[in-house]
Design brief:
alpha/beta, Rossmann fold, six-stranded parallel β-sheet, 34% helix, 17% strand, globular
């Protein structure tokens, strides 16, 4: 399993740059991976991957209500998604942007952050690096330590860990490096139920 312990230094840099505000100004966020959490993945060569056409882009039926519950609970909801198929030529960027227009029209998300790179680009935004989360923290004054990351792959969990978020793994994705999330659930709806329950007064054990 690759080591990404050094990525936490990015959080310290983010805080020193001024994204840590006074407690009353900090905002909590639930960061959501896209494929496998918000919409169904598709099978390609025996693996579950991102859809490459609008015809295959299907939002899970429980997602709208789950996001609305999180928003009602006081959370920002921001999508953070790797879309390397644009760089490899499997899908056009305009198609991905059209998918995200659908998400913005149908779901109460606050923002959608996208990394279009592949690993060898060595960017700071591609998960498991926490760049997209740190950028959102600066932009929206997010309290990362009291925020959540919901994803279905090891890259998501490591990115959330590196940013200091509580991590939630949705079953069904690729967790080939056996990253250890805070909890495992079977859907975004279940994740929302857990988060809102954990945020009730006195619910946290520490």
């Amino acid at each position: 399993m690759p080591s990404y312990s050094g990525l936490r230094s990015g959080v310290a840099s983010c805080l020193s740059d001024g994204c840590e505000k006074e407690a009353q100004l900090a905002r909590r966020c639930v960061f959501l991976d896209r494929d496998g959490v918000i919409n169904a993945s598709v099978e390609r060569d025996g693996r579950l991957v991102a859809p490459t056409s609008l015809a295959d882009f299907r939002i899970f039926p429980d997602v709208d209500a789950a996001i609305r519950r999180l928003r009602h609970g006081g959370f920002l909801v921001i999508v953070v998604t790797n879309q390397p198929d644009v760089a490899t030529g499997l899908v056009k960027r305009e198609t991905v942007e059209a998918m995200h227009t659908i998400l913005r029209d149908r779901l109460a998300v606050d923002d959608i952050q996208v990394c279009y790179h592949v690993d060898h680009d060595d960017c700071t935004c591609r998960k498991p690096k926490p760049g997209m989360l740190l950028d959102a923290a600066r932009r929206y004054d997010i309290d990362l330590a009291n925020s959540y990351l919901v994803g279905d792959r090891w890259r998501d969990i490591l990115a959330g860990d590196a940013a200091g978020c509580f991590t939630i793994l949705v079953t069904g994705g690729d967790n080939e490096f056996s990253s250890t999330p805070g909890i495992v659930v079977n859907s975004l709806s279940s994740a929302a139920e857990f988060i809102l329950g954990r945020e009730r007064p006195g619910a946290r054990s520490s």
